[in-house]
Design goal:
alpha+beta, elongated, disordered N terminus
Length: about 450
């Protein structure tokens, strides 16, 4: 589903090497103890010495990551950046790797995310240089630690698929969105809420929780309370009667497309990885501005194009995005956990439910034929005041033949797809990520539109 092309890592690394030839080989006057200790590779001493300059301390932090300019000046450095970055084969998580902290320390010492100042001061050019190297080193290290599972310095398509855990739509286990109308519907008189069974002609008055849409036994209309005995007696002569209120179709979510091979097992989701790509690339571009690199240079154009390709607004047209949109429309209103009242959740317009389902969702005939004490059955019609904008009430298969009103208790496959999608498309505050081009926030739909 997601085709993340990683040739850019090689190209970016080559640009890095070329820049290194200009900035990384400058002679350093050994005028201070800090420079002396740097040249002796005594990085801990320099990194912890607040009397050393920010440039010197940031350089020491880079040294502690294993990042040494000399590693990139050998002839085959571009063949295996993981080796050149001195990333140990045992490192499989960017967030857990100790080198990440040293990269972040180096970036903090030499400039913040705006790329032009820190602690209220305009930074020297050499700090911009070391910040550039720290950021690009962090970017490449993160990429190869998270994606290069066999630590061979190359990221294969198989490794990308393993990282994303996204199932191919041709997989036999991919499944479908099976959403079907229940045999009952929801009816709200304004005073009480009822479930009316179109097959049995029975009724349930919803108690607490209300609006859950779950059928659990039933009784006669008179016993239920939606109509009274005198009402039925009065309707017998005509053989029909009408009750007015708000209607909602109850629909059973029997199956949802199984989008993921398993629960994401990486230390970082594909959405978080891509978000960091944008953050780091923007930071690199700010460093290039500070270093006087023109906006129309090939390097800055390439960085801009890369960011635009990821931060694209999620407005492309492809089959996968259409299918994911169908699931998102349900997930956006779905209740995850049990609630005392489901009035404002699990409710979606009938048209949206019909569009999301791979099977036909038909509107029921909102009338029920009731037996009568007399000879003529009574047809009770439920007049829907909201007939022009009908809603559907969602309930979820529990995998055992029953239904539940919250997806945390639903069938494991439904829960897996919903929870994985939600995790991929929410920020640290659990808010949905917007689909806005150029906002520097990468949504799951934007990932699906990457080229």
């Amino acid at each position: 589903m997601v085709n993340m092309k990683l040739d850019w890592t090689k190209k970016l690394g080559l640009v890095f090497l070329l820049t290194l030839l200009f900035y990384g080989c400058k002679s350093v006057d050994e005028e201070t103890d800090c420079v002396y200790h740097l040249n002796q590779k005594d990085y801990n001493t320099v990194a912890s010495d607040s009397s050393c300059s920010t440039y010197e301390r940031a350089s020491a932090e880079l040294g502690l990551t294993g990042f040494l300019f000399s590693n990139f000046l050998v002839g085959d450095a571009a063949d295996n950046f993981r080796q050149a970055l001195r990333i140990p084969n045992s490192a499989s998580s960017w967030t857990a790797w100790a080198g990440r902290t040293h990269y972040e320390n180096a970036m903090q010492l030499s400039g913040n995310s705006t790329g032009d100042s820190y602690d209220g001061l305009t930074r020297p050019q050499k700090d911009a240089e070391i910040h550039y190297f720290a950021t690009i080193g962090a970017l490449l290290s993160m990429t190869y630690i998270e994606l290069d599972a066999n630590a061979d310095g190359d990221v294969s398509e198989t490794e990308i698929q393993t990282f994303t855990n996204i199932r191919e739509s041709t997989d036999a286990a991919y499944g479908k969105n099976d959403i079907a109308p229940a045999e009952w519907f929801e009816f709200d008189t304004g005073a009480d809420v009822y479930l009316l069974n179109l097959t049995s002609g029975e009724c349930i008055q919803q108690g607490v929780p209300k609006y859950d849409g779950i059928w659990d036994g039933g009784t006669t209309f008179a016993a239920c309370g939606i109509v009274t005995g005198p009402d039925l007696t009065g309707w017998e002569g005509a053989g029909e009667g009408t009750v007015s209120g708000e209607c909602a179709v109850v629909v059973k979510v029997n199956e949802i497309q199984n989008l993921f091979l398993s629960a994401p097992g990486s230390s970082m989701s594909v959405a978080d990885l891509t978000q960091n790509f944008v953050t780091y690339v923007n930071s690199i571009d700010n460093d290039l501005v500070a270093l006087g690199i023109e906006e129309d240079s090939d390097l800055r154009k390439g960085l801009s194009d890369f960011t635009a390709n990821i931060d694209n607004g999620g407005t492309c047209e492809n089959d996968t995005l259409t299918e994911v949109d169908q699931i998102f429309s349900i997930l956006d209103v779905a209740a995850k956990d049990p609630a005392a009242d489901y009035e404002n959740v699990n409710l979606l317009s009938y048209g949206s439910v019909s569009a999301a389902s791979d099977v036909t969702v038909s509107l029921p005939d909102f009338s029920i034929v009731l037996p009568s004490p007399g000879l003529v059955p009574i047809t009770v019609t439920f007049s829907c005041n909201n007939a022009s904008s009908l809603d559907a009430r969602l309930i979820y298969s529990d995998g055992g033949g029953g239904y539940v009103p919250n997806y945390a208790a639903a069938d494991a496959a439904i829960y897996a797809t919903f929870s994985n999608l939600k995790d991929l498309n929410t920020d640290v505050s659990s808010n949905p990520k917007p689909n806005v081009a150029g906002d520097e926030i990468i949504s799951f739909k934007e990932l699906l539109c990457m080229e």
